[in-house]
Model the fold of this input.
Amino acid sequence: MKGETDLWSLAVIVGLAGMSVLTRCFFFILDRPWGLPEWAHRALHYAPIAALAAVIVPEIVMTQGHLVSTWQDARIFGALAGAAYYFWRRGVLGTMLVGMAVYLPLHLGLGW
Amino acid sequence: MFLSADVRRRPAFREGVLNMAPMAVGIGAWGLMTGVAMVKSGMSVIEAMAMTLLVYAGSSQLAAIPLLVAGAPAWVVLATGFCVNLRFVVFSLHLRPYLMHMPRWRRMLHGYLTADLSYATFTTRYPRPPADLAEQREQEAYLTGGYCTTWCAWMGMSTVGIALANFIPQAWGLGFAGVLSLVGILCSMATTRLRILSALIAGATAVAAYALPLKLNIVTGIGVAVLLCFWLEKQFVRDAIKADL
Done:
């Protein structure tokens, strides 16, 4: 998938839209009231953050399937700066802007 | 639902639109960067537009991009999207008494269009579900007004982002903005020690298991993290509900 449209990707996108509907309406799709077992309630606390971490950590610290071997990688500094901003000021937008402000000069200027 | 003139004519609709307006700037900027990130990560304009219009969930869109680009199997992309969206399951339990008086298609349309900020402002404005018909009509209009602003800001600015992205060279690496946005969302979820641990375990597992085919390292990371946190919770936290909520 490099800038070209294919039907498989579109089908997955439609499936993801289904996930939006399913999760946002989860407890009022059916008419009768119902609850989740206790273990599922507990999983709700850990699964979302685990899913995000599992997606983004490899995107930050790996290049072509290998752990980066140098500390001169713009992505690591960008992500650290973004996280530092978040815990200082809160706000997802600021996290992204500060992260990019660190990432872009290193990436474009120094070629990291 | 904001296409229905009957809903729009109710005074609470206007109130909902206006109360959400200050947040529209932030939503728009986040939509703009999501649009740019989708195209600069290798999606086509048609795919990016379809994703914006249909999926309408920033974090699951951004999480799906690297998986789609790597050609992960559909079920891995969908399972990841489901997990990232699990917070909405909690919201839906809360919204149930507010919406159950409506027919199914109507409450599901409201549910689909109610994202994080609309949910938060709506339940803050109305701490109690409607008790009579007048309240039902008022609350529905307020909810619709709120997500009308959100939807318009998100869709408009995402489209601008997708259009602009074509003029930005790939080498700039703007797709990384999507990952950085997810870093922010991840930090916002890191509210307890066990959740932070869950993120660390999932991240480390996903890196260690990277060689697995079909992007199964993602699902493995989620599974290992959730199971380990369960076990730790049982071992060390006496009253899990109190410790967490």
About this structure: The CA atoms of residues 36 and 165 of chain B lie 5 Å apart. Chain B has two domains: 5-171, 190-244. The first helix of chain B runs from residue 5 to 8. Residues 5-171 of chain B form one domain.
